[in-house]
Amino acid sequence: RSIKSLTTSSSSHILRRGYASEAVPDRKVAVLGAAGGIGQPLALLMKLNPLVSSLALYDIANTPGVAADISHINTRSEVYGYSGEAELGKALEGADVVIIPAGVPRKPGMTRDDLFNINAGIVKGLCEAIAKHCPQALVNMISNPVNSTVPIAAEIFKKAGTYDPKRLFGVTTLDVVRAKTFYAGKGKVPVAEVNVPVVGGHAGITILPLFSQATPKANLSDAEITALTKRTQDGGTEVVEAKAGKGSATLSMAYAGAVFADACLKGLNGASDVVECSFVQSTVTELPFFASKVRLGKNGVEEVLGLGPLSDYEKEGLEKLKPELQSSIEKGIKFANQ
Ligand code: NAD
Ligand code: LMR
Questions:
Q1: What is the structure's pLDDT at 7?
Q2: Which of 45, 101, 137, 203 has the most CB within a 10 Å radius?
Q3: How far, in Å, is the centroid of ligand 1 from the Cα of 9?
Q4: What is the pLDDT of residue 20?
Q5: Where is the Lactate/malate dehydrogenase C-terminal domain positioned along the sequence (predicted)?
Q6: For 84, left (φ over 0), alpha (ψ -120 to 50), or beta?
Q7: What's residue 151's pLDDT?
């Protein structure tokens, strides 16, 4: 079978097995922040992905143990652990996809923007290294505040002369995962069949689920749609509060991050019709970055898809989110250029 037919197999589950590894292109994935709450389960899920041939796990500490542990799993990829800044270059060299869950998480009472002061510097340093060691990689930014860290990354890559908007993604998949779960629960439809686009950004009201476009159709009242929208927007806070000071979503985020990285790999390998929502450079609205459905291909973003028809409630939500999203984007751009 050709590589294309293998990578466009009807089975899209990230845990599937059974590919002849020699027929699938070699792909290196680097996880930066791999010893953290998201990093460890995300590294595990990427180790289970048959599209990955080399898995580089980088953190400022504790990666040798995580890498040794994961490396014993009998799946395709070779696993390498890298610890401390001196090893960052080796971790990144030759990477096709770099996933960044490095940085501090929220505690109850904090907004994602409260993480800016610490995480902006972390992301800046990591992106400078990406520009140097693997400028062609697709970058999957998980570190918060995503609405600012993606613009920071873009500015750092511009300064280095390596910026390609097709290769930079803010990971908003967890918003989609949540919207699907909550919609299926309320609408009593099979969760595995649900599709819901989530657009805008990744913080509070900037997260805009488009339940009017959800499939399969469920008979939900306006009040139920409003409640589902708010629950999706506050999904991160729901977990932060339940964890009561011990961090934010890690396991569901690892799942979401693995789904998005898998889509990037499928796109790189030439699979057709790979579409996920992501926060990317965009002309869908007047904002320079915006999350919407994106078609992934051999060079990363193949097409940024439009919003489609919106309900009046969604149109209102879209106008409301723009000022906050704009100021988070500007904050990131300003930080990177100061
Ligand atoms: P965590 O504290 O458990 O892990 C973060 C890891 O990053 C730690 O292992 C730490 O050593 C590492 N790190 C810190 N500085 C680093 C550097 N310079 N280079 C490499 N690694 C470094 O936190 P977590 O729960 O894994 O969350 C990580 C980030 O992901 C947070 O900013 C959080 O807000 C964000 N997050 C985003 C989403 C999303 O949907 N995009 C969802 C959940 C969490
Ligand atoms: C999430 O949506 O779970 C993450 O952005 C983490 C957070 O701080 O809520």
A1: 32
A2: 101
A3: 33
A4: 46
A5: 172-335
A6: left
A7: 99
Give the pLDDT score at 40: 99
**β-pair partners for 278:** 292
Amino acid at 96: D
**CA pair distance 105, 110, nearest whole angstrom:** 10
What does the pLDDT read at residue 17? 43
* Mutate-to-test residue for ligand 1 from 32, 58, 59, highest number of ligand atoms within 8 A of CB: 59
Backbone angles phi, psi at 143, to 5 degrees: -60, 135
User: How many Cβ atoms are within 10 Å of 126's Cβ, its own excluded?
Assistant: 26
Side chain identity at 21, as an amino acid letter? Answer: S
Give per-residue pLDDT as tens, 294-323: 999 999 999 999 999 999 999 999 999 999
Helix (H) or strand (E) holding 238: helix 235-243
Which 3 state secondary structure label does DSSP give 83? Answer: strand
Task: Report the candidate in 1, 101, 94, 92 with the shortest Cα–Cα distance to residue 42.
Answer: 101
Question: Taking the mean position of all CA atoms in its chain, how far away is CA 335?
Answer: 22
Helix (H, G, I), strand (E, B) or coil at 168: strand
Of the chain, the end-to-end C-alpha distance in Å amounts to: 52
CA dist 67 and 34 (Å) reads 9
On the 0-12 / 13-18 / 19+ scale of CB atoms within 10 A, 213 is middle
Residue ID of nearest Cα to ligand 1 atom 39: 142
pLDDT less than 50: residues of the chain: 1-22
Of these residues, 13, 72, 133, 202, which one is catalytic?
A: 202
Q: Which atom of ligand 1 is nearest to the CA of 61?
A: 11
Does ligand 1 come within 6 angstroms of the Cβ of 100?
A: no
Q: Atom 16 in ligand 1: which residue has the minimum CA distance?
A: 102
| Res 23: pLDDT | 79
**Residue 320 CB neighbours (<10 A):** 13
ipTM above threshold 0.90: yes
